[in-house]
Amino acid sequence: MCGLAGFLEPGRRLCADSYRATASRMADAILHRGPDDAGIWVDEDAGVGLGHRRLSILDLSPEGHQPMLSANGRYALVFNGEIYNFASLRAELAGLGHGFRGGSDTEVMLAAFTQWGCLASLGRFTGMFAFALWDREERVLHLSRDRFGEKPLYYGWSNGSFLFGSELKALAAHPRWRGEINRDVIPLLLRYNCIPAPYSIYRDIHKLPPGTLLTLKAAEGALPTFREYWSATAAACAGFNDPLLISDAEATAELDKRLRQVVRQQMVSDVPLGAFLSGGVDSSAIVALMQAQSSNRVRTFTIGFEEKDYDESDAARAVAAHLGTEHTELRVSAREAMAVIPRLAAIYDEPFSDSSQIPTLLIAGLARRHVTVSLSGDGGDELFAGYNRYLWAERIWGQLRVMPLLMRKLAARGLGGVGDPALQSLFELIAPLAPEVRQPLDKLHKILDLLDSDSIEDIYLRLRSHNQHPASLVPGSQEPDSFPLRPPQWPSLGKGAAAMQCVDALTYLPDDILTKVDRASMAVGLEARVPFLDHHLFEFAWRLPAKLRIRDGQGKWLLRQLVYKYVPRELIERPKSGFAIPIGSWLGGPLREWCESQLAPERLKRGGYFDARAVRAMWQEHLSGARDWQHRLWDILMFQAWLERIQKTAQK
To answer: Active site includes 2?
Structure first.
């Protein structure tokens, strides 16, 4: 696992030393992604510079150093990630006459590019990756990212220079960096608690979409071209329209075989390896298959919290004991958890407000004390329909659609302004329709917000959104288009759970979940691997009949059957809670002084991005208990903290 950075400056020629100094600055800005080694390479005649920071995982020798040149000297590569099938590719390429100096997957990639070309090679790679490949013969730059977006890659033009890197801070280290904040994307943050691809917080700087190859010629005025080498939508639709004729027992056995193979492949490492374990279905499945294939006790890690409603450590401990792992648990106080908040703006590099970023960072730090690689259960919900919103949307729409829309709109308008204390007495009347969340009033507000929905897609979008009208909080902004807002362009998977599941895989997974895991793990020099996101496994999962994903009102039915083979049902079955923390109570309690500082009227006005009066009204309602605005406030607080950081950086 590493970090990459670089630039292409068509029509602008500097001396090699100047290019090397710039590439070095860009790479050093992401030193945390690769503390073990550093390298730079420039093509002075073309105006190209490549920088790399290395976290050594495979082939710890100098033969794994990057940037790396192909054996024939044509290609220069900087690469972040792991190619899990590199051993089989190496054997195939050796049979075609290629020789290898070391044992790295980077060298195998270069041989593949030489043999098959860039686009064809991408179709052969199984793994997580982002890379920049400079073709010295064709004078062409290629950038690409893995199929699901496990590894990040930013790119864009700044004052005539084309910049790219694993994190925005690498681009910002280039002397021609402009860094103009894009006001219009702030509503996307307030809606989704992240800024979805292809956008970034900066104008003209983008995230490369997953499964995409960008190609740019080194000529003035040239524009990049984009080719999709793999499509999650196409894979899902192909599987959905060609379901397997398979029994429950056969499906369980096949999933066991396939997931076991993927886990075994991702356990290959030349450094210590472990796994995150929450005690839930997904992480238990991964750990169970790791332990089943290991002659040693697998290292597992979990975080426990003092607040019982948010503590899953007992469940994780029980699963670890049953499987016989070497389990490490860290109990964290609220004060210790909150202590990481000042680091978040620097770690995430652009506003990011999924509050589970805090426990994710804590567990990554815990794991890194003992191992360098950790497997994760992320992706199981998207593959096997695990999110409660799939069930909620179908259930709620089934109830609402029989009521006239006008009647529901009037009801929503009448109840929308009622405070939490007055709504408490209504809760029991409509509780059966609601999602299973910790706080009853949160449940009630979710239902009220859905009353005037006009479709199941609208219900899904509202369940995904923190704020239904986020641009109203950002005067002068216009919320740009984003994929979940375009139901007519959703995958052709019917109306219901399957379509929502695929949209989550296309958006929520790369933009939120994988961003959170990558930045948290890389901040501490830990490589996180996600076995559920093997693309062959994804294609298999989408061929499963719907009844194997959702049955008897429960998601992940088939995956649960697999886990029951290794872990008793009673250790697994409990309400889904996610990786949550009590942000709501923290804001009005121990974080209140910090919140007051960030949300001070004069500060909001000076920043110039938010409607200070509306934000202050929300803050006062939260403090009084009239409404629970924890998620909306956290979105704004994370932006404010990020803004404060970049303003201080600019003043240095």
So the answer is: yes
